[in-house]
Design goal:
Elements lengths: L3 H8 L3 H8 L3 H8 L7 H11 L14
Helix pairs in contact: 2-3
InterPro entries: Cro/C1-type_HTH (IPR001387), Lambda_DNA-bd_dom_sf (IPR010982)
Protein name: Helix-turn-helix
Organism: Algoriphagus boritolerans DSM 17298 = JCM 18970
C-alpha cells in the first residue's frame, strides 16, 4: 500500500500533472494512486523527488493499516 493519493491531496497536485512529470500515462499513475498497482522502487523514488517528500512518506506500513 502507498500514500501517493494522500500526499497529492495534501499538496493540491493532480494525477494528470504527476503523470506528465513522470512521463507516464494518466491510467498508470491512477493505478498507483488507487493502489491497484505498486510503482517500482525507482518510480517511487522519482515520485518522491517530484513531490518534494521523503520516499518513506509515500509508504504505508502494515502497522498503519
Amino acid at each position: 500500500m502507498n500514500r501517493i493519493k494522500e500526499v497529492l491531496e495534501q499538496k493540491g497536485i493532480t494525477q494528470t500533472w504527476l503523470a506528465e512529470q513522470l512521463g507516464k500515462s494518466y491510467n498508470m499513475v491512477n493505478g498507483y494512486v488507487q493502489n491497484r498497482h505498486q510503482p517500482r522502487l525507482e518510480v517511487l523514488f522519482e515520485i518522491a523527488r517530484i513531490l518534494g517528500v521523503d520516499p518513506k512518506e509515500l509508504i504505508k506500513s502494515s502497522q498503519n493499516l
